[in-house]
Amino acid sequence: MKYPEMDEALELARRGIGRTSPNPAVGAVVVQNGEIAGRGFHTYAQVKHAEILALEQAGARARGATVFLTLEPCSHQGRTLPCADALVAAGVARVVAAMEDPNPLVAGQGFKRLRDAGIAVEVASEYAGDAARINEAFVHSMRTGLPLVTLKAALTLDGKIAAPEDNTGWITSERARGHVQEIRHNSDAILTGIGTALADDPQLTDRTGLERSRPLLRIVADSTLRIPLDSRIVSGASGDVAILTTSASSEERRRALEYRGIRVFVFDGPGGRTDLRKLTEHLATLQYRSLMIESGSKLNWAALEAGIVDKVLFYYAPKILGGLQSLPVAGGIGRLRRTDAIQLGRVTVHSIPPDEFMVEAWVNR
User: Active-site residue 51, yes or no?
Assistant: First the structure.
């Protein structure tokens, strides 16, 4: 069944994208006698959940109303009291939700509390896909205990990300790069390698100018701490930069970075390199729901080989570099047999007019 009110609740939820982490983005609509009496969407800064804001706007009209939610109401106390209890107290008659909350602290308990209070509950599963996409990282994090890791790259049609000599200019268009900034805005953390940091001196900032629930954590994988102290990412740090290194790195360099407010993560991996799996596990303890990788050929392959990549976003430009020295999207040893190739599925091709496209695909587990 189609509900225009649910479509509106989903649009409200989208207004919270990038503004709710570590919480999910949720939209709520209160309907009384066929008319919308209250609307709400959650942002981390305003604390109150979507349901509470919609109920407050509806006031006395919430009694006997139907409430459309993009996610099951919470049944536990965090920064706020349980939303399920608020719906009961408001005297609503019916709740229609797009999906069950994957958070183990909720996971059906919010619906149970409503039903126990005599409130009719309907799960409009035809909207579950849209609701889950809005909270893709949150859903993944709740189900796996790890952040959603997305590998992004800009490529020529022959799969190259860099030329062997001069790399000035961009592979993709300004329009494609603008879309990448939207992805950054919806990410909690971003990772690059020391090779990219030395070659490009990037800032890795979210340049959308939109409100965030917390700063984008900018991480550089640097096994021996070669990062220059006057690099733009270090000099521009404001509690939002971390360096991933190993125990073989200089203690003096670590102290110099920490003195400048840089977080230093020491995670030893095989072959004297950093351990990317430990990094994702550590980010999970800090409630970072998503990690975006924007790096070079070597780190891209290391992340794929480590098995931490969940999905890829490859932006293709109508160009060909050719040559054996131009860098592919993933370098390293690679897989020596075609039968051992990393398999991807759920592939979607997104057009970027006039003549570019982006491939979105999930790594098969």
Answer: yes
